[in-house]
């Protein structure tokens, strides 16, 4: 289940965006609430809604971006239109918008049902609806509504992570971080948090013991080496950057890297690739999360980065990017997720075939595929250095 606070706007352009979806039969206006006498009119135009919301915004000139636009999406068709309407109503109440004028628009133009909510951040008294920690509150409210217990989920995630074999604490942290958790080391205890709330912890000594006793399967190593060599010769290994999509169609910073070879190995064998890089420069290393075999490997153990991912440049890079538009385009509107089309269709690496499914049924969908991949998890030294720069707790002991 995804909830996302969408783009800021000085005007209420989200009304036009959503009504255009309705006109193209890609959406349906399912509820109009709080618009007073406007709701009694027989024929209402999009501009009427915009004018009404703008009149509220005019009561507080200090607020530069008065539009409130959010979206909730379950996976696939797990929730229907009526269920999403009820969920959206209750979510808006929990966020402080229950008495505000708002529009609910059900979208049906992707493989995931989803609903958009448009309202004003200014109430009828000219006061701004609180936006303090709203991205964190957005998930807290949603999780409460759907009965999801984040602490229980964190305990399960921690338990699953400890089933993996890894060589350094940094690799262990990567397993949890790819599921959206933040980890800080304080007084010998790794504290696990999400949405600004501590949800669990693990003692540093327990983690060290796990590292010292964990033994990697020689058979699995050999199997992966053979897989790499086989598919490297028959699948395009040219890497391409995944960039954020800026307003107006421009492209921003690099959020990650991938290749057709990565996608093939991910979908067929349950491997997730994390490339380590600095700023917009090409990767300098990579790590493999082997979800099927429950291992974390340094990529160089199997194939040198230069061989595994031949980084193109110039026209060749543009050609490869153009051939993979669904992977290339990523939204810059939220740190947590790609753009709406990618976000709602789900990652293309979900493990449906038996070779890529863990014995306990865990698929790559259960792991956060946030494309804002950090470059600080290649080894313990780099991890500690970058965390100090970001004023985060150290995770290395050097």
Automatic annotation (TrEMBL):
| Residues annotated as domain MobA/VirD2-like nuclease | 17-145
Q: Which InterPro entries match?
A: Endonuclease_MobA/VirD2
Name of the protein in its database record:
MobA/VirD2-like nuclease domain-containing protein
**UniProt-listed Pfam families:** Relaxase (PF03432)
């Amino acid at each position: 289940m995804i909830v996302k606070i969408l783009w800021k706007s000085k005007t209420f352009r989200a009304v036009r965006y959503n009504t255009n979806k309705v006109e193209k039969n890609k959406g349906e206006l399912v509820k109009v609430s709080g618009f007073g006498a406007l709701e009694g009119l027989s024929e209402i135009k999009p501009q009427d809604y915009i004018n009404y919301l703008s009149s509220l915004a005019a009561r507080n000139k200090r607020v530069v971006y008065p539009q409130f636009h959010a979206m909730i999406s379950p996976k696939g068709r797990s929730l229907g239109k009526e269920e999403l309407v009820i969920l959206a109503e209750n979510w808006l109440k929990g966020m402080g918008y229950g008495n505000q004028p708002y529009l609910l628009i059900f979208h049906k133009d992707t493989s995931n049902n989803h609903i958009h909510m448009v309202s004003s951040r200014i109430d009828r008294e000219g006061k701004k609806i609180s936006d303090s920690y709203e991205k964190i509150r957005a998930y807290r409210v949603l999780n409460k509504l759907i009965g999801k217990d984040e602490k229980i989920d964190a305990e399960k995630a921690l338990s699953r992570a400890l089933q993996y074999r890894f060589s350094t604490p940094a690799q262990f942290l990567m397993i949890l971080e790819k599921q959206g958790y933040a980890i800080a080391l304080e007084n010998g205890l790794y504290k696990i948090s999400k949405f600004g709330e501590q949800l669990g912890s693990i003692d540093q000594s327990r983690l060290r013991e796990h590292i010292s006793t964990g033994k990697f399967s020689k058979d699995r190593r050999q199997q992966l080496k053979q897989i790499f060599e086989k598919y490297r010769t028959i699948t395009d290994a040219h890497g391409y950057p995944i960039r954020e999509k800026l307003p107006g169609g421009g492209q921003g910073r690099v959020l990650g890297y991938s290749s057709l070879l990565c996608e093939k190995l991910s979908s067929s064998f349950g491997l997730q690739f994390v490339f380590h890089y600095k700023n917009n420069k090409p990767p300098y290393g990579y790590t493999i999360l082997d979800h099927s075999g429950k291992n974390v490997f340094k990529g160089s153990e199997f194939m040198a980065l230069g061989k595994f991912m031949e980084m193109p440049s110039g026209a060749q890079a543009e050609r490869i990017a153009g051939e993979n538009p669904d992977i290339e385009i990523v939204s810059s509107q939220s740190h947590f997720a790609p753009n709406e089309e990618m976000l709602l269709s789900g990652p293309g690496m979900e493990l449906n075939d038996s070779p890529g499914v863990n014995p306990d049924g865990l698929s790559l969908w259960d792991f956060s595929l946030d494309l804002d991949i950090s470059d600080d998890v290649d080894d313990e030294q780099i991890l500690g250095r970058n965390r100090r720069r970001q004023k985060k707790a150290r995770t290395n002991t050097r």
